[in-house]
Structure formats: C-alpha cells, structure tokens
Amino acid sequence: MRIIERLIEKEAAAHQNLGDVAWLMGLHEAEKEEDKIAEGLKVSLIFFDPGARNKFHTHTFEQVLWVTSGRGILATKEEEHVLTPGMIAYIPPGELHWHGAAGDSAFAHISFATAGQTTF
Length: 120
Hints:
Blueprint: E1 8-10, E2 21-26, E3 41-48, E4 58-59, E5 63-70, E6 72-75, E7 80-83, E8 88-91, E9 98-101, E10 107-114, E11 118-119
Antiparallel strand pairs: 1-2, 2-3, 3-10, 4-11, 5-8, 5-10, 6-7, 6-9
C-alpha cells in the first residue's frame, strides 16, 4: 500500500495540446519512483478556464472522466454532451472527441486512463 501526499502539478498547455487550460495535476508523469501510483494507470485532475478545451483527439486506451466542478462539454463530431459535477463519462478507444469548459464556466474533471497513445 502507498499513500501519495502530493500531486505533480504542471502547466497543461505546454504538455497536452490543450488550449487555455489552467493546470494539469496528475500522478501519471511522476518523476520520483515513490510518486508513481500504478503501472498502466494514468490519473489526472485537469482544470479548464472558461471556454478552454482540448483539441479533437483519439486514444488507443479507455478513458473515464469524473466531473468535479463547473460545467463542461464532451463532444464528438456528431454530438455534444453537457457535463456537470458528479457525472461520469466513458470514452472508448478510438473515439474522436474533445472535452473542455463551457463558455461561461470553469470546469474540472479527474481523468482515469489505461496505458496507450493519444493522437491529436
């Protein structure tokens, strides 16, 4: 058993092809061995400024988003879904999508993902 007392905090725009995102906090890019949570599991808390979103992208892995605050959007080329606190969204491998904040609200979610590649 391990207890992680701190998160790795980074400016997301420099690392994830994200727009005007405030912060990406996660355990999946830990630099110290004692900060790693598990092999093959990525866990990130992502904060979006109002109107900020990431670009259309796909994953070779499954992704689950658990909304923690604000109002956000999860979209494919065909549809958009409004996300609010407490909602959980499942994104299957290969689905082209984007997610981010609504224009009038900041937004945050926790992302759970297995190992694999992301293509923007």
